[in-house]
Amino acid sequence: MNVHEYQAKELLAQHGIAVPAGHAALSVEEAVEAAKKLPGPLYVVKAQIHAGGRGKGKFKELGADAKGGVRLAKSLDEVKDHAEEMLGNTLVTIQTGDAGKQVNRLYITDGVDIAKEYYLSLLVDRATGRVAFVVSTEGGMDIETVAHDTPELITTFSVDPAQGFQPHHGRAVAFALKLTGDLNKQAQKLAKQLYDAFLATDCEMLEINPLVESEDGKLLVLDAKMSFDGNALYRHKDIEALRDETEEDPAEVEASEYDLAYIKLDGNIGCMVNGAGLAMATMDIIKLNGAFPANFLDVGGGATTEKVTAAFKIILKDPAVEGILVNIFGGIMKCDVIANGIVQAAKDVNLQVPLVVRLEGTNVAEGKAILNNSGLAIVSADNLGDAAQKIVAEVKKAA
Questions:
Q1: Is 117 annotated as a binding residue?
Q2: What CATH number should be reported for the domain whose range is 19-110?
Q3: 132, 139, 276, 368: which one has the fewest Cβ atoms less than 10 Å from its Cβ?
Q4: Which residues of this UniProt protein bind substrate (predicted)?
Q5: Where exactly are the structural domains of the chain?
Q6: What pLDDT, on a 0 to 100 scale, did the predictor assign at position 303?
Q7: Does the annotation list 46 as a binding residue?
Q8: Quick one: how far is CA 16 from the chain centroid?
Q9: Beta carbons of 223 and 22 less than 8 angstroms apart
């Protein structure tokens, strides 16, 4: 789960981490009132969307010469003007794609006199099972270019969870940032605070870009992105309450209500499977047969008929879907439960696209009998390769 910048900074502030003063706003009036609470005379008006690259982004409705989603304001009138241009309009960044995201929230922060920008992030390194630090002296809007063109300017190291954060980790961060004196001490302290916050909130990713050195010699978190392990949110009801569903795909929101793992993709063949590994194999074999998956949908190992029916309906709500491949291996999952869900969903939505089903495992004979006796035009497959070939052929035939 992702949160907005202002929410991430509020969480970091709870761990003693220094962030510039700021207030969220949902309207132009609230934006002006937020600025009035700050010392000024320099303010920053920041669009709040779940995507990076806001500073270089452009608003669709404002033309090619429009300013980005992070703007300086030297008066309350400028705050008002920026808020009016941003709210309700669509911000397109390198991470949103051409569709962009509508800006429904703003963050008004105090201006900072910046002496230097740095980059600092923590993430879960799945290769080692450890929390990794990624540090660079080259922070700011061009960090992707730095990573691509000059990777030697980025330092990465991980923390052994058995030992936890040690003083030498803090020194490694300060050394990578090339800081000396009091700034070096601040960096060591900040690294420990960020690591503790990362663990305490069950973070998956915590990115500070930029971390800035102010003209008066302070390290400040100028921008922050945080994402959290969805499987651990039951331990963090306060963080779960920060979820902004307007930033998510409606189908993914609906899927989460049924405890389904759903991710929309760009293809035309819907996939319903049980198990992430099987999902990846299914998508791969669809591509090997010349087509592209329209989604990743995992019903899990304990799906009910209701859950399967919901999964089927979610797939069919995507207008790009021209055919569906159901690939189920029934270990804990029972094939007859899957079959009942498929039949119920197909009848509920008046299925009009080809459907190929491959079932194997527990109660497979019962499952196949349910499908065969359903009266629906369901194509049965014997194995994964056969299933992929058949759904691709059926979609081409129907085109």
A1: yes
A2: 3.30.1490.20
A3: 276
A4: 274, 331-333
A5: 19-110, 114-240, 250-398
A6: 67
A7: yes
A8: 26
A9: no
Count of Cβ atoms closer than 10 Å to residue 385 Cβ: 13
What kind of fold does domain 250-398 have according to CATH?
Rossmann fold (3.40.50)
Which DSSP symbol is given to 215? T
**Distance set, CA 255 to CA 223, 235, 248, 336, 343 (Å):** 31, 21, 11, 22, 19
Going from the first residue of the chain to its last (399 residues), give the mean pLDDT of each consecutive group of 10, the final group possibly shorter: 96 95 97 94 95 89 81 96 94 88 95 94 92 92 78 92 96 96 97 97 96 95 94 94 87 85 91 88 94 90 76 88 90 82 83 90 90 88 92 89
What does the pLDDT read at residue 163? 93
Rounded-to-integer distance, Cα 259 and Cα 17, Å? 34
The pLDDT value recorded for residue 52 is: 87
Cβ contact 211:220 at 8 Å = yes
How is residue 29 written in tokens?
């009036």
CA distance 34 to 32: 5
Residue 191: other Cβ atoms inside 10 A: 25
* Residue among 28, 10, 29, 30 at smallest CA distance from 20: 10
Report whether 268 belongs to an annotated binding site: no
| Catalytic annotation, residues | 119, 207
Q: Is 89 annotated as a binding residue?
A: no
For 114-240, CATH number out of 3.40.50.300, 3.50.30.50, 1.10.580.10, 3.30.470.20 equals: 3.30.470.20
Distance CA 322, CA 391 (A): 10
B/e letters for 281-301, b = 16+ CB within 10 Å, e = fewer, are: ebbebbeebebebbbbbbbbe
Under 8 Å between Cβ of 205 and 124: yes
Residue 89's identity, in one-letter code, is N
Say how many residues make up the chain.
399
Is 395:268 a contact under the CB 8 Å cutoff? yes
Residue carrying the six token digits 């049924």: 258
The pLDDT of residue 201 is 97
Cα distance between residue 21 and residue 36, in whole Å: 12
Q: Hey, what are 351's tokens? A: 């299925």
Alpha-carbon distance 345 to 308, whole Å? 8
